[in-house]
Amino acid sequence: AFMPYIKLKTNVEISKEKQVQLKDIFGKKISLLPGKSEYYLMVEIEDQRALYFQGSDSPCAILEVKLYSPNSRAETASLSKVLTDSVSSSLQIDSDRIYVEYELTPKWAMGGEEF
Predict the structure, then answer these.
(1) CA dihedral angle for residue 49, residue 55, residue 61, residue 65, rounded to 10 degrees
(2) What is the pLDDT confidence band of residue 108, given thresholds at 50, 70 and 90?
(3) Given Cys at both, which of 44, 48, 54, 75 links 7, Cβ 3.0 to 4.6 Å?
(4) Which residues have C-beta within 8 Å of that of residue 43, sequence separation ≥ 6?
């Protein structure tokens, strides 16, 4: 139930204000996955990356979501929609130029203790 991590990479510039706004949205919406909460969520944002999609450097983004425990397809689909819509509206990136990747991580540690 612990340790969600969301990393946003994009080739557009993100102001500090928008970073905080996105972090807040991710924090609220991670609870779409049962047992997940902002308390354990780590968010990383990388802007102005060399990132290309369909051979173009037009605005695009990828969200990497790492989880300790699996969730159903319906649960991750709901989160994917919210993450995509949030990034699209906040950064003016077409939703069809935003990927969301999920990865299960078998081992996590926090505070020196492994789960």
Answers:
(1) -100
(2) confident
(3) 44
(4) 5, 6, 7, 8, 22, 23, 26, 27
Q: pTM score, two decimals?
A: 0.93
b/e string for 10-42 if b means 16 or more Cβ within 10 A? bbbebeeebeeebbebbbebbebbeebeeebbe
Q: Does an H or E element contain 17, and which?
A: helix 16-29
**Residue 83, Ramachandran bin (φ over 0: left; ψ between -120 and 50: alpha; else beta):** alpha
Residue type at position 76: T
Strand partners, 44: 7
pLDDT digits (tens, 9 = 90+) for 44-58: 999 999 999 999 999
Per-residue pLDDT reduced to its tens digit, 76-94: 999 999 999 999 999 999 9
Taking each helix axis as running N to C, give the angle between helix 16-29 and helix 73-91, from 0 to 180 degrees, rounded to the nearest 10.
160
The token pair that represents 47 in the structure block: 């802007």
Question: What is the sign of the dihedral through the CA atoms of 78, 80, 84 and 90?
Answer: positive
